[in-house]
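Narrative of activities, Objective 1.

The group set out to show that a structural description can be obtained from nothing but a protein's sequence at a throughput compatible with the screening campaign. Below is one input-output pair from the validation batch, recorded exactly as produced.
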Amino acid sequence: MSASLDCLNPSPEERGLTLPQLLEHRIDRLFSTIPLIGELGQLFADHGHDLYLVGGSVRDALLGTLGHDLDFTSDAHPDEIESLLRTRTHAVWDIGRAFGTIGARIPVADAPATEPLTGGDPGQASPDAWVVEITTYRTDVYRPDSRKPAIAFGSSIDEDLIRRDFTVNAMAVHAATRQFVDPHAGLADIAAGVLRTPFPPERSFSDDPLRMMRAARFTSQLGFAVTAPVRTAMTEMADRIAIISAERVRDELSKLLLTDHPREGLDLLVSTGIADHVLPELPALQLERDEHHRHKDVYQHTLTVVEQSIALEHSRGDSPDLTGRMAALMHDVGKPATRRFEPGGKVSFHHHDVVGAKLTRKRLKALAFPSQFVKDVSTLVELHLRFHGYGDQGWTDSAVRRYVRDAGDQLERLHILTRADCTTMNRRKAERLEFAYDDLERRIAELEEREELEAIRPDLDGEQIMAILGIRPGPVVGRAYKFLLNLRLDEGPQSVEEAGQALRSWWADQPESQA
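Output recorded for this entry:
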């Protein structure tokens, strides 16, 4: 078997097959693994229509990584598609009707677990239901100043495929006859591990500039490299990304960060200049090094922190986490604005955590992320330096309680970010930091077991405060509550009697008590 076919992840039983033989084997396995494809193909054929599995669904099936979503295209129009789907399921939706798309959820009765499509790892079991989307052939037309295409229905599968973003997504399999349609050599590009556009890339990216960000995402998701013409077009047309809505940019950036290896895609966005328009804080981290190299390469350090945070997610059994990964990406964005060359050649970045949190809030709001997401990521950026110094001088129980309270429900993410932020090549220093953070997590666990740290609150509530002091609701109650909270953080849990005595002593020094 040619070494170039390694990108197709051949299983042991597939080794020795030629590319055409491997293709036939994968398609046969696809139809045997998911009988629904052939069933829908025959349903449409019986009513005089063609139906093709298309795009990413074909690409992933050939790579052996098909998920639970199936994308089809057909010469049938939306009303006909909906009518045919309703013969199989009541769970049909038409939210994409304006774009020619009808969706459905089709249950799979008594579906047993099946072998993965490639016959090897990773394993894939049949779902309880398949999510199906069928779109009428399209020939979208873009205007140079438009964010959205003018939707037009096409008349052939070839016409539909040429409008797609990359050749690896411009393949189709007829759902009834199993005919493989690949007018732009997408299979060969998969085998070679490259990303190429059906049209010349300048036209493709002019039609839909978001495809440039998709190129970065697929670089990370698939492990493919863009061709030289694609990279050149991305570089020369980077400013055209400005016509894309913040929401579409946000969604594509999120998908990129949620891949297993976002470093390659992020680096492509930076090297082509696209990041200058969608996430300028990232290329700004490429600080010119001082002549004595007194500080590390902040940009490369950031990409490494993202990688290490993903590795820690996996090792701690966490799911892919956009909030934590975004915090890793943004944690040092305050450094360019705070870099100072101190006497003696030392370089400092004082308060880059606070400045970085402000820049993070501003950027994520501009990208239309939800407010809670913005708050959570900004909190992590602001807290990412809090741990440093723990290993040298240790913390009191009060300091540990404040660390937990300030992190709130972001504590697990803060653990990951703080550990990932250690990229030193000094083995002794790295081991010392790891030991110190192990110790901090141990102390947090011990205090949590004794004091329920995640639910830290004063030992008296507002009603008790007013009853003890004989006051009505107002600002004084809030100040008293804050005093008791600080007492709880400094000294740990108090009994009601102890908290009441401390409250009375505090009250005696307040001007309102003399009124």
